[in-house]
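TASK: fixed-backbone design
INPUT:
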């Protein structure tokens, strides 16, 4: 528990360090003379204990435009948003809601686990700047062409103490570029670049003064995601220039929150080289990284060498399925080892034990709940019949969650996996 002790005394240790660089305002990252980085909120150390929060009801799918924004869903029309407040924990996993299993809500389950941050991939907006950008297809319109539920997110922060990493796809999956799927996103196209900028600007203006905002996160592994129908992997410098322009724009609109970029873990750090040249306004680098059972290898060191910014892991995880069938243990071991590596490279650990890189500011678990639509039959939980990316082994994409939805008899049913219990223990040992 040395690291948790270090977190508890983070204020004291930070006070002993000399700050040589600040990036941000009320929320900021600071670099110390020894090369370490920290995230501060109101000048207090903040280590991201995060979860990707993108719950999708059983039977819904983006492919057939049936997915709805969870922030607005009230299927029983009782005036209460379903997922945040009316999910329930199936404690004995009998797929029946017993008398001692009250409606609780995902927000409560997040808080009990010790989560302090959720990652939202993309925020909706009805700002006039958006125009028809989110009307390019029915699914995008359903999810993003409306006002964000600020009341809900304010409650998330005020009652449950959880902040939001506010994301924007920057054209991944064609979202925000104002084009149809069949067209794809071309970062060389001036109009598409302008559409993306306007939709980012709308997001920032809509939310910049809200207490729930932790930071802005640009993209979602666009540097590698050829499967999401955009050409950033083929034109990395062109894409990086757009990221740089947007980062500078956000800093002008909102000096109080840092700007992060989300890259996929490419191993060659090529896009980072371009960020260093044309996007110095980036404050934080985030990685969707899946390196295996024993952590993240040389990611911390290599990233620091190429583009010295604080790092957090914006996605990491393991599906709870193996050749043995449903397998909570393999998921548990993966997360346990990965989190140790994240801790070992935080500034507090660097100061306390003189090890690691000292440039890590937290991590975001992928994923909160299972998603049943990923193998095309959203009313069934499939074990996996195809590779998500060509020439890769079959994946079990519908088992990523640290919470399952049991047999699917109630889309608001939650069953804890062992990983949920793991982080409940770890994260409730540290409340910084």
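OUTPUT:
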């Amino acid at each position: 528990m040395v690291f948790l002790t270090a977190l508890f005394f983070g204020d004291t240790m930070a006070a002993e360090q000399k700050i040589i660089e600040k990036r941000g305002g009320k929320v900021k990252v600071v670099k110390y003379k020894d090369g370490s980085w920290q995230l501060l909120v109101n000048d207090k150390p903040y280590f991201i204990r995060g979860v990707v929060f993108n719950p999708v009801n059983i039977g819904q799918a983006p492919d057939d435009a049936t997915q709805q924004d969870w922030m607005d869903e009230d299927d029983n029309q009782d005036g209460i948003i379903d997922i945040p407040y009316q999910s329930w924990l199936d404690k004995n996993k009998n797929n029946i809601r017993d008398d001692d299993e009250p409606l609780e809500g995902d927000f409560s389950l997040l808080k009990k686990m010790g989560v302090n941050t959720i990652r939202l991939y993309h925020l909706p907006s009805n700002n006039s700047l958006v125009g028809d950008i989110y009307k390019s297809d029915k699914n995008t319109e359903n999810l993003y062409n409306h006002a964000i539920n600020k009341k809900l997110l304010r409650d998330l922060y005020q009652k449950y103490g959880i902040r939001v990493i506010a994301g924007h796809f920057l054209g991944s999956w064609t979202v925000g570029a104002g084009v149809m799927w069949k067209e794809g996103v071309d970062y060389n196209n001036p109009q598409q670049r302008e559409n993306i900028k306007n939709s980012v600007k709308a997001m920032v203006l809509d939310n910049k003064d809200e207490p729930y905002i932790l930071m802005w996160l640009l993209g979602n592994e666009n540097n590698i995601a050829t499967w999401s129908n955009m050409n950033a992997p083929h034109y990395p410098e062109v894409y990086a220039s757009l990221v740089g322009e947007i980062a500078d724009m956000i800093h002008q609109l909102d000096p109080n929150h840092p700007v992060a970029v989300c890259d996929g873990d490419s191993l060659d750090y090529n896009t980072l080289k371009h960020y260093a040249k044309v996007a110095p306004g980036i404050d934080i680098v985030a990685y969707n990284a899946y390196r295996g059972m024993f952590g993240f290898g040389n990611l911390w060191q290599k990233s620091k060498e190429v583009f010295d910014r604080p790092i957090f892991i914006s996605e990491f995880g393991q599906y709870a399925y193996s050749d043995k069938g449903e397998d909570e243990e393999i998921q548990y071991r993966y997360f346990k080892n990965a989190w140790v590596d994240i801790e070992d490279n935080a500034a507090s650990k660097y100061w306390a034990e003189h090890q690691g890189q000292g440039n890590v500011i937290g991590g975001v678990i992928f994923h909160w709940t299972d998603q049943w639509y990923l193998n095309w039959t959203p009313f069934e939980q499939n074990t996996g019949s195809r590779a998500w990316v060509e020439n890769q082994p079959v994946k079990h994409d519908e088992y990523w969650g640290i919470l399952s939805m049991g047999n699917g008899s109630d889309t608001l049913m939650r069953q804890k996996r062992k990983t949920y219990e793991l982080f409940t223990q770890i994260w409730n040992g540290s409340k910084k």
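COMMENT: Residues 273 and 306 are 6 Å apart (CA to CA).
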